[in-house]
Specification:
The complex is a heterodimer of chains A (276) and B (333). Chain A is built from 10 helices and no strands. Chain A is mainly alpha-helical. Chain B has 2 domains: 228 residues, Rossmann fold (3-Layer(aba) Sandwich), CATH 3.40.50; 66 residues. In chain B, helix 4 crosses helix 5 and helix 4 runs parallel beside helix 6. Chains A and B meet through helix 1, helix 2, helix 3 and helix 4 of A and helix 1, strand 1, helix 3 and helix 4 of B. Chain B: Its main location: membrane.
């Protein structure tokens, strides 16, 4: 059937929606998850050279300093206290960089409008969050290794199972970086992001470097709530001549679980912060 | 509607209708402050291949408008259509249609110029090899090769802006939204920006939305301009068309040595009509009146009080003032 609608009757429709009549232009492709994650990771790693070096040095210096200080009150040789100090100080580097610095980074990026740069690119939120978290976890590797080796030498602990750090750093890194990213992106103001990051690191410091058995029960519960604790425990167990690998694995699983959950929250928080 | 108008409407790349966005007022101690209407019913069309300007002083609502065009902010009401896509309903599509240069570069600041461009390309979905090839092309085009390995943070303001502009160009988009792209740039860098824009218009029909508060730039590079004040479009035309509104007038700027000589009756009569800022008076008036005023101020007691004067053809700033916009915040350089 031929249309009998007069041409004039179509005009208001055209006027209201001039473009709807035309075909929609093709959309450029989205960036895929893994390639864009790799691009973010690489870009973040390169930032370390420019901006992060002094802070990474401070992180290591702080941990080594704490061990030297504790050496004054803790006897050398293989004991619970020595293990706790060395393991706690090593994981403290991870807390300093992955939790504290990443919370500050995302807090400042959000406050300055820097998130717009990512939000106006077709990149999956998970790529931005995971790429940054992975990079910050990577920053901690040299500091954590240096601290662990220096601490083992200082307290006369065996280096045989130091390779455990290869699992502790990424998993504790995932948990703490996820927490740092989530705090940085959720904090309503930049100063609060900094504050939360600092407090998280302080908690890891105060509750991480002392042997748990000496702490009062409520403090122990608090300690059990910190994800960094499980990294510390896993690493401390590895100083045994024949470590309880099941317990190490269980500790690391907690880190992994917290990591997955906190990174998921961080990704959600990024999406929320990027489009207000 | 004529066939020509219909064709033009179909050529519209970006259609904005009745865009309203309010921000909640600050929470006062007793009662909440009134909400601020940052965009108050904004409507315009941008045609294919056009450099379309959004001109207004700081606080006019330009940034709010741009954030809605780029999918960063959801309007309270109204529509944004870009190339047939409803960006209010699908804000995520904006990044696949639009290359956006915002005012903040903090996400890229710690990267080298080359890595910022390459990373942006990869995050636009290019594979590594293509991203690097495009990066090299764009850095060469903009004359940034010598700065390629320098971190953006260590560059001057203008160079930093140019590096961020380079990143915007890696990974082609049919529409570019540039928020004050040439701030702080020297003339060489400005020319590089506009040459790159022109090349993309000529070769690919790229459409550009330019946010500016620089009237000279607006007059020289824009095809059409929407003048924005207090969240509304107060005029939308070509720069020449807008200047025709004040064609019969000239602008007279008087700078007094100290106090204006109000004892001269002709000068006293002008005081109410002048835009005064410090010792400077700005007046817009018909040619013959201006001649009379010039005669007055260049002789007698008025001349003794005069430090300097200029007579100029009107600019977009004069149009802006005539249309009732607030004078502050527009830049002439």
């Amino acid at each position: 059937m031929v249309s009998t609608v007069p041409a004039e009757a179509l005009v208001p429709v055209l006027r209201q929606e001039p473009v709807a009549a035309a075909e929609a232009a093709p959309l450029a492709p989205r960036a895929r998850l893994l390639p864009s994650l790799a691009a973010v990771y690489r870009a973040q790693l390169s930032r370390a050279r420019v901006a992060r070096m002094p802070l990474l040095f401070v992180a290591t210096f702080q941990s080594v300093g704490i061990m030297i200080m504790m050496r004054g009150v803790v006897d050398g040789g293989d004991g619970e206290a020595a293990r706790a100090v060395v393991a706690g100080s090593s994981v403290l580097v991870v807390a300093f960089v992955a939790l504290n610095l990443l919370a500050q980074y995302f807090g400042s990026l959000r406050a300055s409008g820097g998130l717009d740069t990512y939000a106006t690119l077709p990149v999956p939120p998970a790529s931005v969050v995971l790429g940054a978290a992975a990079a910050y976890a990577s920053f901690t590797v040299p500091g954590a290794v240096v601290t662990a080796v220096a601490g083992s030498a200082l307290f006369g602990l065996p280096l045989a199972h130091l390779w455990v750090l290869a699992a502790v750093i990424p998993l504790a890194g995932a948990a703490l970086a996820g927490l740092g990213a989530a705090l940085g992106l959720l904090a309503p103001r930049q100063e609060l992001a900094t504050l939360f990051g600092q407090m998280g690191m302080s908690a890891a410091l105060l509750l991480g470097v002392l042997p748990a058995s000496n702490l009062p029960a409520p403090i122990q519960w608090l300690r059990d709530l910190l994800p960094s604790t499980y990294g510390v425990e896993a690493f401390a167990r590895s100083f045994d001549a024949s470590p309880d690998w099941v317990a190490v694995l269980a500790d690391l699983s907690v880190c992994a679980g917290v990591g997955v959950a906190s990174l998921a929250v961080a990704t959600w928080a990024y999406r929320r912060a990027a489009t207000r | 509607m004529t066939a020509e108008a219909a064709a033009q409407a179909r050529e519209a790349v970006c259609t904005v209708r009745d865009l309203v966005r309010t921000y909640p007022g600050g929470r006062g101690r007793s009662a909440p402050a009134a909400a601020v209407r940052a965009n108050d019913g904004i409507t315009f069309d941008v045609r294919r291949g056009e450099v379309f300007g959004i001109l207004g002083p700081n606080g006019a609502g330009k940034s709010t408008l741009v954030r809605q065009l780029t999918g960063l902010l959801r309007p309270d009401s109204g529509t944004v259509d870009v190339l047939g896509h409803d960006l209010v309903r699908h804000p995520d599509r904006a990044s696949r249609l639009i290359g956006y240069l915002g005012q903040d570069s903090s996400a890229l600041d710690d990267l080298t110029v080359a890595l910022a461009a390459e990373t942006t390309g990869r995050l636009r979905g290019l594979d590594v090899r293509t991203a690097r090839a495009r990066r090299d092309e764009v850095l060469a085009e903009l004359g940034l090769e010598e700065l390629a390995s320098r971190p953006i943070r260590r560059l001057s303001g203008g160079q930093r802006r140019l590096a961020c502009f380079a990143a915007v160009l890696v990974g082609e988009r049919p529409v570019l939204v540039l928020d004050e792209p040439t701030t702080g740039m020297d003339p060489v860098a400005r020319r590089a920006v506009w040459a790159a824009v022109d090349r993309r218009r000529a070769e690919r029909g790229t459409t550009v939305l330019l946010v500016t508060h620089n009237v000279i730039e607006a007059e020289t590079v824009l095809d059409r301009v929407a003048v924005i004040d207090r969240g509304r479009v107060i005029a939308c035309d070509t720069p020449a068309g807008l200047k025709a509104l004040v064609a019969g007038e000239v602008r007279l700027d008087l700078v007094w040595r100290e106090d204006p000589p109000l004892s001269v009756p002709e000068i006293a009569a002008l005081e109410g009509r002048a835009q005064c800022s410090g010792r400077r008076w700005s007046l817009r008036m018909p040619h013959d009146q201006a001649r009379a005023v010039v005669a007055t101020v260049t002789g007698g007691p008025a001349f003794a009080a005069l430090d300097d004067f200029t007579l100029a053809t009107p600019s977009l700033e004069d149009v802006y003032l005539m249309l009732g916009g607030r004078g502050e915040g527009l830049v002439k350089q």
